[in-house]
Amino acid sequence: MKQRGFTLIEMTIALTLSVLVLFVGTFMLSSYLRTYHKLSAAVEKNQVKQFVLNKLVIDIQFAEGINKSSGPDLLILDLLDDALRYDHFNNKIRRRTNKSTAYLAEPGEISSLSFSYPKPGLVMIFLDKIKTGAYCRNEK
Amino acid sequence: MRRGFTLIEVLVALAILVIIGGTFLFFFKTGLDAQADADEFLKALNACRAELEELRATPWAGLRPSPHITLTPITYDLYQVELKYNWHPGRKPIEIFTLRSKYQ
Predict the structure, then answer these.
(1) Which of A25, A115, A132, A134 is the most buried (most CB within 10 A)?
(2) A43/B47 CB distance under 8 A
(3) Would the CB atoms of B38 and A135 count as touching at under 8 Å?
(4) pLDDT for A4-55, tens place per residue?
(5) Which chain B residue lies closest to A34 (C-alpha atoms)?
């Protein structure tokens, strides 16, 4: 009688192949997901950095002046009847006035913030690997 | 009775597998490249802002062109400022045009 169906060998090979294909598929899917999460986290971090930089630049541009006791780790901006202080505190960006404190980033989103003052009224901002600058419009 | 696969069949199957795998890899690479570009572009834009703010902080008499900035006099008290920043070879450079007046 002619044999019908599959032999054990055939079944084993077929199973091995399907397992292999599934394995490769799972691997591809998981690496896709990993890349996706990595990329969206990076994009979100960049958005936070850009937000903090824009806030800083606008605050500097429209401040009354840059306080002389500002340093590389602490920026003090004079306002009309207040002062604005920026620093990197507890792994966050801290923005303080005399009355209130706000944090502009979640811990770990920004790992360093420093300032330099190359010209009167000009503040260079170093935030992680990004460098930018802002000129205080009211500086005399 | 025919046994096994012909060479053509095996080749076709392999080619299909390679194309599928390659497409996946290509997608990954595109995504990662775009992210690297975005990082670089963010840095470049902020560097441009730094240069323009520095220009603004410079008094009129001290204005000099820099490697990225060209100054063209329009009138005796007005410059056209052209900033061109090559942030990535083979990419369109960032170009910003603005004016700088003697009185600000």
Answers:
(1) A134
(2) no
(3) no
(4) 788 899 899 999 999 998 998 899 889 889 988 998 999 999 999 999 999 9
(5) B28
Contact B54 A131 (CB under 8 A): no
Q: Is A134's CB within 8 Å of B53's CB?
A: yes
Q: Does B61 touch chain A (CB under 8 A)?
A: no
Residue A93 lies in a domain: yes
Task: Assess if residue A52 is contained within a domain.
Answer: yes
A129 near B CB under 8 A: yes
Whether the model pTM is above 0.95: no
Judge whether A140 lies within some domain.
no
**Average of per-residue pLDDT values in chain B:** 91
Structural domain count, chain A: 1
Give the pLDDT confidence of B32-55 residue by residue, as tens digits: 888 899 999 999 999 999 999 999
Beta bridge partners of B79: B73, B100
